[in-house]
Amino acid sequence: MMPWITAGLHSRHLLAAVAALAIAAIPAYSRTGDGVRITTNDTRQLVMTVVPNIDTTRLPSGELFISVASGATLNPDQPGAPMQQGIIIPLALPSPEGNTLEVVAAEYGPPISARIAPVPSMITDPQGFSVPRYDADPAAYSVAAPAAAPATLRYVGIARNYHAGQIVVAPYRFDGPSGTVRFLKSATLRVRYNAAAAAGSGRGVGLRDQQFGAGLFVNPSAAAAWAKPVAVPQAFARRTAASTARAWMRVEVKEDGLYELRAEDLRTVGLIFPPWTLPESQSTAAMEANAGRYRRCRQQPDAPNPRAG
């Protein structure tokens, strides 16, 4: 079998948290579940077998809605297009470049005649809440093609003092013109790290830092070995838009209720999120579109207090 090779988030106040985007881009990951079994994990390479956990159901319109454990929608800003999903596996890298992913083996089930569900658009229901609506775009389905490889490796950016990457596994292959889908049964993957960068690291961090930072990744021991020195922020230093990304902020409002906090509102007060802190699937435009899905609604007399809990 020819292997695939690819280079490689007081009652008159509303509390809002702006998370560190590079960290938010990396979902919480359990090394002992989610169908991922690791066989080799050192500073030279990472070898794993992925067996996707997939459930399906039919929408009223007939499309197949696919639910994937630890999956994420990769094209949320394309309403009406076939939903593309990926199993996101976060890993630390020794450098932004020079790391490769090899798909050693991949096994798929037989083709099934079905159209996968489209990316939903958000509409406002009569009560003023945003709800999803699934309307397929025939033009988008007519040209939909399966991913070129079962898995890809991509560089996300700096997360705390680590170079962060993601392995994105495609749990199914949908072919729009033929209207068929094939589900991934298993895939064996090998990541080879940039040997020169890995050998040149080795600074390491203490146990406390390793537990807090390196544990975000599937390869915590290697992450600890590749940790980069970072400047310790001064307690009363003047904060910039970038340095406040992990801060809690208090936003005053005129009355109790549910409010929309848009990207342009954050820009108005000087909070600018650079696009390179977001994964490929989340552009600044997509972030703004997602923020726009939350609409202010009138609080009902019997509704629970939004600040409770």
As a percent range, the share of strand residues is 25-35%
CA radius of gyration: 22 Å
Give the overall average pLDDT: 74
Sheet/helix structural class: alpha+beta
Shape: flat
Helix content: 10-25%
Strand count: 17
Q: pLDDT below 50 for ≥5 consecutive residues: which ranges?
A: 5-32, 204-211, 231-237, 239-247, 274-284, 289-309
What is the terminal-to-terminal distance? 55 Å
For the report, how would you describe the main beta sheet?
7 strands, antiparallel
Q: Figure out the total of helices.
A: 7
The arrangement of helices and strands along the chain is: EEHEEEEEEEEEEHEEEEHHHEHH
Draw up the topology in text.
Layout lengths: L3 E4 L5 E5 L3 H4 L11 E6 L3 E6 L3 E5 L5 E5 L2 E3 L11 E9 L6 E9 L3 E2 L7 E4 L5 E4 L4 H5 L8 E9 L2 E8 L2 E4 L4 E13 L2 H6 L6 H6 L7 H7 L21 E5 L10 H6 L15 H8 L18
Structural notes for this entry:
The protein has 309 residues and is of the alpha+beta class. It is built from seven helices and 17 strands. It has helices at 21-24, 138-142, 195-200, 207-212, 220-226, 263-268, 284-291; strands at 4-7, 13-17, 36-41, 45-50, 54-58, 64-68, 71-73, 85-93, 100-108, 112-113, 121-124, 130-133, 151-159, 162-169, 172-175, 180-192, 248-252. Strands 1, 3, 4, 9, 10, 15 and 16 form a seven-stranded antiparallel beta sheet that branches. It has a four-stranded antiparallel beta sheet with strand order 7-8-14-13. Strand 15 and strand 16 form a beta hairpin.
Give descriptors for this structure.
seven-stranded antiparallel β-sheet; alpha+beta; 7 helices; disordered C terminus; 17 strands; 309 residues
